TrEMBL record:
Top enzyme class: oxidoreductase
Protein's UniProt name: UDP-glucose 6-dehydrogenase
Residue ranges constituting the UDP-glucose/GDP-mannose dehydrogenase C-terminal domain according to the UniProt record: 316-422
Binding site for NAD(+): 30, 35, 86, 121, 153, 264, 330
GO molecular function, one term: NAD binding
Pathway where this protein functions: Nucleotide-sugar biosynthesis; UDP-alpha-D-glucuronate biosynthesis; UDP-alpha-D-glucuronate from UDP-alpha-D-glucose: step 1/1
Biological process per Gene Ontology, one example term: polysaccharide biosynthetic process
Catalytic activity as recorded in UniProt: UDP-alpha-D-glucose + 2 NAD(+) + H2O = UDP-alpha-D-glucuronate + 2 NADH + 3 H(+)
Gene3D superfamilies: Cytochrome c1, transmembrane anchor, C-terminal, NAD(P)-binding Rossmann-like Domain
Organism encoding this protein: Halalkalibaculum roseum
Pfam families membership: UDPG_MGDP_dh, UDPG_MGDP_dh_C, UDPG_MGDP_dh_N
Length: 441
């Protein structure tokens, strides 16, 4: 099939590349000339495991092209994917200006039947607004479809190639058939393509992310209670996760959820509910609890040291990205933790396998002035008063624990991701303070 993908951000690039890999002809469009040039030169601006291999192959075999010319890209396309930014506006609602602008332009360009697909996460009712914006400028036949993506950063290629489900929101049979044909190669294992109306499809995306954010937050609150009553959240996780109605996944307590999706989507669905006269109380609590959870580790450090004055102390930080296998630091707990520690007078030595540069761009001047960035995990231990673990990169899971004693002033670890087994930590003679588990002193 001939497909145009408008927007070469994270979603557009992953979708375009993966569609090309299943044999389609893809033209990706972006208004950013430098980005298009970079992509044409074979450079991918994001870090995503597995993407480069299929990107290179699709380009080599001529199925993946990049242009700044929207008209050229959509001329022969049967399906046009809109993968455009929808940043949160001041009121918490997604800003649709980029999507509606392109919809208007498409109206002026299309002359034969097209399926126009919203792939970005957009508020309920956006398909109708896109339809109106296109229709204003054309008499050609077209359908607007909602097709939310459920990709996880760091596993996006895997998620795209083998989705647990594909959701297609359209009331047009013609569009549903084209979309189903496009997605069939990805669900050969029998996973469903679920066709529904546009509004339900738009809301499905928010409901999924809000449910997952709530699940994590619930476990974080259980962890907070564990700390008060002397229980261990690992045991609770195993004890409840084996109930298939609850499920084993997404039950890991820690220092809160971050990223570009959960925080934004929880806020957006909460706002949509409010706009429609419904007070979505549980999500209000989720947002408040998560905000506190992100810096809960700093409170534990204050309790340990018996003061909120950290001047004269240096802390090592392992992990800056909001989760492993990405350089994305949006809403990353490490950003907030670093700020709080520096505000209390501490100096930091920070290490992350991928996210140092993105972190530097996003953090404050105060943090930059008081942080040394190092290129391996060991260097972040040298002469520090304590280590703070903010992201569960695999390489942090099995360090030789004894080395903590060798390098650090004192082997004290504040672990926001519960990486180490408590019995092992006990034997190693370290001070180990984690989330929802008894502290080891
Ligand atoms: C999330 C969803 O998982 C995807 O399905 C969705 O497509 C995507 O948002 C999106 O809307 O685009 P992502 O933000 O990449 O994906 O990251 P996740 O792996 O879901 O993790 C989100 C946050 O939850 C991270 O901060 C992670 O550390 C935290 N988390 C996750 C926990 O604290 N505990 C867990 O058990 C799981």
């Amino acid at each position: 099939m001939n497909i145009a993908v408008v927007g070469t951000g994270y979603v557009g690039l992953v979708s375009g590349t993966c569609f090309a890999d299943s044999g389609n002809d893809i033209t990706c469009v972006d208004i950013d000339e430098n980005k298009v040039k970079q992509l044409r030169d074979g450079e991918i601006p994001i870090y995503e495991p597995g993407l480069k291999t299929i990107f290179d192959r699709s380009i080599r075999e001529g199925r993946l092209r990049f242009t700044t010319d929207l008209e050229e890209a959509v001329k022969d396309a049967e399906i046009i994917f809109l993968c455009l930014p929808t940043p949160p506006g001041a009121d918490g609602q997604a800003d649709l200006s980029a999507v509606l602008k392109v919809a208007g332009q498409l109206g002026k360009m299309i002359t034969d039947y097209k399926v126009i697909v919203n792939k970005s996460t957009v508020p309920v009712g956006t398909a109708d607004r896109v339809r109106e914006a296109v229709a204003e400028n054309t008499d050609a036949e077209f359908d607007v479809v909602s097709n939310p993506e459920f990709l996880r950063e760091g596993a996006a290629v895997e998620d795209f190639m083998k989705p647990e489900r594909v959701v297609i929101g359209t009331s047009s049979e013609r569009a549903a058939e084209l979309m189903t044909t496009l997605y069939e190669p990805f669900v050969r294992s029998g996973n469903p393509i679920i066709v529904m109306d546009e509004r339900s499809s738009e809301l499905t995306k928010y409901a999924a992310n809000a449910m997952l954010a709530t699940k994590i937050t619930f476990m974080n609150e259980i962890a907070n209670i564990c700390e008060k009553v002397g229980a261990n959240v690992d045991n609770i996780r195993r004890g409840i996760g084996t109930d298939s109605r609850i499920g084993k996944r997404f039950l890991f307590a820690g220092i809160g959820y971050g990223g570009s999706c959960f925080p934004k989507d929880v806020q957006a669905i909460h706002y949509t509910a409010g706009q429609n006269g419904y007070d979505f109380k549980i999500l209000d609590s989720v947002m408040k609890v998560n905000e506190k959870q992100k810096v809960s580790i700093v409170k534990k450090m204050e309790d340990y040291y018996g003061t909120s004055d950290f001047s004269g102390k240096t802390f090592g930080i392992w992990g800056l990205s909001f989760k492993p296998e990405t350089d994305d630091i949006r809403e990353a707990p490490a950003l907030y933790i670093a700020e709080e520690l520096v505000e209390r007078g501490a100096k930091l030595i920070a290490y992350d396998p991928e996210a140092i540069e993105t972190f530097k761009k996003a953090t404050t001047k105060e943090v930059l002035d008081n942080t040394t960035f190092v290129l391996n995990q060991q260097d972040a231990l040298v002469d520090v008063d304590a280590l703070v673990i903010c992201t569960e990169w695999n390489e942090f899971r099995r360090p030789t624990i004894d080395r903590f004693q060798d390098h650090m002033k004192k082997a004290v670890i504040f672990d926001g991701r519960n990486l180490y087994d408590l019995n092992r930590a006990k034997k190693s003679n370290i001070t180990y303070i984690s989330v929802g588990r008894p502290s080891i002193n």
